[in-house]
Each structure stands twice: as C-alpha cells, then as structure tokens.
Amino acid sequence: MDNPYKTIEAEVIDITEETAAIKTFIFKPKEEFSFRTGQFVELAIPGFGEAPFTPSSNPSEKEYIGITIMNTGRVTKKLHELRLKDKVGIRGPYGKGYPLGEFKGKEVLIVGGGVGLAPLRSLLYALFNEIASFKKIILKYGAKTPKDIVYKKEIEEWSRSSEKVDVKITVDVGDETWKGRVGLVTTLLDNLEVDIKNSVAIVCGPPIMMKFATFKLINIGYAPQDIYLSMEKNMSCGIGKCGHCRMGKYYVCKDGPVFTYDKLKDLPEVWD
Amino acid sequence: MVSYFVKKNEINNLLNFIQQAFELFVIKEKGSNLYWTRFDPENSDEIIINRHRPAEPLKGFIFKSKEKILNNFNSEKTKPSAILGAKACDLQALKILDYVFLEGEFKDPFYKKTREETLLISGDCTSFKDVCFCLGIGVEPFPKENFDLNFSELNEGFIITVGSQKGDKILAKSGIPINKVTAEQMEESEQRKKEFLDKLQASICRMALPPKDSFKLGVQSNFKSELWTNFALTCVECGGCNTVCPTCHCFFLVDQNAEDKYQRLKVWDSCLLKRFAKVAGGANPRKHLSARLRNRFVKKFDFFPEILGLYACTGCGRCIETCPGDIDLREILKEACKSR
Ligand code: SF4
Ligand code: FES
C-alpha cells in the first residue's frame, strides 16, 4: 500500500534572496510532481523535520517547483541554510487550491500582505496563463517597509504585462528611498474601481491583515462567498489524520487551505 | 452471529493455540487497577477476561504511540497482536479511529495493517469503576461489533460469540470442544447481563448526567462561557487525558537521527499542550489553556457528531481517573448542559 508520508527527493537548483528574511528556492523533484495553484506541499529536511508551504511558482511549470520561505521558525531557519545542489524531501500536493473556473469572466481582485504574496504569485501566473478568460486582474499588495517587498522585479513586469493587469503597492512605513504609497493594504481598497457584482477577491497574508481586508471587502459590498482566503494553520500530516489543522468543522489541510469566507464567518478562532 | 459454549478449563488451550501465531496480551490486576500484559502460559490463572476496562486504552495496540513511518531500516518481522478482554467502550472507540485513519482520500497504511492483522477478543463487562459512564453516552457494556470473538461469562464457562471469519477460523482450528449454547445457558447469560446492567445503571443514575442528546448543543452554545476558564484552573497541561483517551487520535511527525541515517516517526500528540496549534510564524489560535480544554470538548462533542454522527467519547472515564487536576469530564458536561 502507498505510504502517504513518503517524500520525493528534490534538489535545490536556484535561490533568490527576496528580502533579509525571505528566500525563494527552486527545487527540481526527482520524480514527476505537479500541483494546482493554492494547494500546499510538505517540505522536509531529512533528519530534521517538515513544514507546510504553498508553492509560489507557475503551476504549469512541470520541471520544477518554487517555494518562497520566510525564516521564522526551527525548520524554516534550517531551510534558509540550504545551498545549491542540496537535497530536500517533498510530498503532496495537498488540499484544494483556487477554483480558477469560478473566476472566469470576472474581475479578479488579489489582496496580499507580506510573504502572503507567495501563494498569490503562483495564482497570478496561473491567471496569466489564461489571461483571455479573465476580465481584469487587480493586485493590491502591502508590505511593512520597502525592504520587505518581495518579488520586486516580477511585480514591475506584471504591471507592464497587459492592459488587464493593474498593480498597486503600499508600505506601512516608508523610508528615504520610497516614493510610493504609505498606508495599510486595506487603504488600497478605498475607491476601488471594480464591478463588485462581477468580481471575486482573493486574500492572503498575516492573520490580522486577512481579517481587516476581509471586513473591508464585506463593507464595500463583496459577498462572503466571493472572498477566497488562504488559511494558515499548523499543518503536520497534510492528509486529514493528525488533527493539528482543525478549524471548526474543517480540516484546513483537506477542506482548505483555500476557503470562501461564507464557510468561515461563523467559526471561532479563525483569525487567531 | 453464532455463539458457542466453551468450558472454563478449555480456555487455556485456546490461548496457547492463539499464542503460536500471535503476540497475545491479556488483562491482569495490579493494585487497584487492571493492566494489559503479555500472556505467560506458566502464569495463566489470574487472567481477567471480563470485569471492566484496563487502565490503558486499547488504541495503543493498533495506533501505536510511536511508529516509524519512513526509513524503517531494521524492520524485523513481528507477530501480529491478539488482545484478550477488550471492552465495549474501547471497541466503540475504534469507530472513530477507523474513520480517521481508513476513510477519505488518504489512508494510513500503518494503522490499516495493524488493524487488519490484530485479533480482537472482547469480553462483556461484569464490573465497573466509579468513573464508568458508558450507558450515559449510549454505549452498552456488552460488545456487539468490532470483535473477532466475544466472551460472556457463565458459572461453568463462557458463551463465545463469533464476530468475524477470522474469529471463526481461530476457534475452529484451535480444536477446543465447542458446544451449542443451551436454553438454560442463554437464560443464565441474560440474567447475569440484566443484573449487571441494573447495578451499572444505578451508578450512572447517581451521576445525574444530562441526557446524552444534549451534549452537542451544550458544548456548542457554551463556546464563550466562563466555564472553560473555571475548569481549566487546575489543569497542569500534562496531556494525560489525551493519552488515556481511547478515541484521541492526534499525532505529530518527528525525525530521529541515527548516525548518517534518519527515521521519521509518528508520535501521539496532545491538544492540551500549548504548541499544538501554533504555526511557525508564531500565531497560536489556542494560546489560552481554557481554549485548549474547550477544544478537546468541541472536538469530541461537536466536531465528531457533526462529521460522523458519533461522540468521540465512549464513557470509559479514564480521563477522569488520570487527571492530576481532578477535572471531571462529567462535571463539565453537566455545567455545559445546564438550562439557562
Ligand atoms: S489530564 Fe487533566 S491536567 Fe492533564 S492535560 Fe488533561 S485536563 Fe489538563
Ligand atoms: S495537517 Fe494533519 S489533519 Fe490537517
């Protein structure tokens, strides 16, 4: 019988330093490995431990998988020490991703905070793959300071890539080099030029940012079922067995990690 | 299900036969408690088949407290286990564990293998502990399913009920004389069960538990109540309640190194411990102990009934017995179900 805990070996083939605490690694799995955007994987350092991540690369890229990692804990610290040619273990993908089919013909509003842009980058690539199917793609991204902005180069490219794409960035606190906008990401949702009735909103970021962004979206008229949230809980097994990721009647690892807000709005402990 | 009558003095032969192909575990009394212990043919007189459930839950034989799930380099072949004397509350708990590990898109191959190869021989309860409240949560103390063979005690022997083909084969191959159950024996058995049920019922009545159908709503509607904070005051976060619970199934994965090799282990975890739901970034949805105590009740009395139609509590009372903080699950249910 298949062992669902078994990992596939993957080699580090590229490393990009996004910020002081965030790196994007490109891994080349030894065996075939594919995922749908929004699904997550378990990444293991053999002999050290595993942690869950939602890939940040284009899901149509079959040869490799990109994962953006912030150095915040025991495993991520170790992952940050990885060098080219090092080997890791990978298993998955797990959970339900973004239902791209539901977004077709709509104005897709993407709201990201900090390293929460990682899964959204993968989503953006997936949307760009079929850009003709979507009416508009709007990205609102907020980082703490200019130094915390991830994917700086890509963000530039995205804004120039198509008429349909509109990108706005803000930082909570600016610095002497920053000429852009200062303010929380929720301020980018004021005076939104979006046909809300024909739009979906996708939010990913730290819990507090997700909470306020969601409330704001509700305030400006989004229906709960049109708001998609990527929930981060303590995923361990990834397969609905270990009990760690339970949130109300859901297991985030199998019923999520992407949920529409109508499913979550009455659950306790959602934003904590 | 078919049943046979077997004389008391034949049981040892049956056990010796089972012992050939299985690692046999039986119940013995030590101090004021009953414990599982390896069967010793030289020392088989004090084996307890009926009585009440042992101190440790049955789950550990099937969902191991620590199991190698990756790189099991010295996987020496061991005999499957046979368990004698499992009780109804523990068999009921297997429904929860089976659901968790065997249902859904992913199955747990380790649980599956052990579950399939373990021989489960159960026994009717003939005594109970003060903390036993099975009937109060709808679990009868006489096994009806999830066993290979079940023993009902009579004066002269046992009525052995066959619950599976595996049980049937073992009984047939053991060669011990099996007899049709006579009407008198049936009568005796029913009489014993009835007498026992009356006593158990009286004990549980004295607990004054709320009706079992009210647990779900009680726990649900008290989410914001002070009761969790009040009851959590004496919790020392030992996780003992999780360990002895026959349905608690949570685990974590951890790597263990040996020279240049490593193994990944699946180890029992406890939701009462602070780091249980903490994410790497530091956020912890259940920072407060009261939220973790509440979570245990939500999982057992709201979540499982919601997704499976079953309480993840079988009334075995082990958590009550084990808690150093004297936290009594029955008192929490009473408080939660008080009409306001
Ligand atoms: S057994 Fe009692 S003290 Fe220990 S974690 Fe459970 S409730 Fe707390
Ligand atoms: S990560 Fe184990 S149950 Fe969801």
Automatic annotation (TrEMBL), chain A:
Annotated binding of [2Fe-2S] cluster, by residue: C237, C242, C245, C253
Entry keyword annotation includes Metal-binding: yes
Q: Name one GO molecular function term.
A: metal ion binding
According to the record, the segments passing through the membrane are none
SUPFAM superfamilies per record: Ferredoxin reductase-like, C-terminal NADP-linked domain (SSF52343), Riboflavin synthase domain-like (SSF63380)
Q: Which InterPro entries match?
A: Cbr1-like_FAD-bd_dom, Cyt_c3_hydrogenase_gsu, Dihydroorotate_DH_Fe-S-bd, FAD-bd_FR_type, Flavoprot_Pyr_Nucl_cyt_Rdtase, FNR_nucleotide-bd, OxRdtase_FAD/NAD-bd, PyrK_electron_transfer
Q: Which UniProt keywords apply?
A: 2Fe-2S, Iron, Iron-sulfur, Metal-binding
Query: Which note does the record give on the cofactor?
Result: Binds 1 [2Fe-2S] cluster per subunit.
Under Pfam families, the record lists: DHODB_Fe-S_bind, FAD_binding_6, NAD_binding_1
Task: List GO BP terms, alphabetically.
Answer: pyrimidine nucleotide biosynthetic process
Question: What CDD domains does this protein map onto?
Answer: sulfite_reductase_like
Q: Which cofactor does it need?
A: [2Fe-2S] cluster
Domain FAD-binding FR-type, first and last residues per copy: 5-100
PANTHER family xrefs: ANAEROBIC SULFITE REDUCTASE SUBUNIT B, DIHYDROOROTATE DEHYDROGENASE B (NAD(+)), ELECTRON TRANSFER SUBUNIT
Its name, as the record gives it, is Oxidoreductase
Protein source organism: Candidatus Aquitaenariimonas noxiae
From TrEMBL, chain B:
Q: What residues form the membrane-spanning segments?
A: none
Q: Which SUPFAM superfamilies match?
A: alpha-helical ferredoxin
**Gene Ontology MF annotations:** iron-sulfur cluster binding; metal ion binding
Can you give the residue ranges of the 4Fe-4S ferredoxin-type domain?
Answer: 225-256, 303-332
Write down the Pfam families for this protein, in alphabetical order. Answer: Fer4_22 (PF17179)
InterPro entries of this UniProt entry? 4Fe4S_Fe-S-bd, 4Fe4S_Fe_S_CS, Helical_ferredxn
Sorted alphabetically, which Gene3D superfamilies does this protein's record hold? Alpha-helical ferredoxin (1.10.1060.10)
Q: Which UniProt keywords apply?
A: Iron, Iron-sulfur, Metal-binding
Q: Which PANTHER family match?
A: ANAEROBIC SULFITE REDUCTASE SUBUNIT A
Q: What is this protein called?
A: 4Fe-4S ferredoxin-type domain-containing protein
- What species does this protein belong to? Candidatus Aquitaenariimonas noxiae
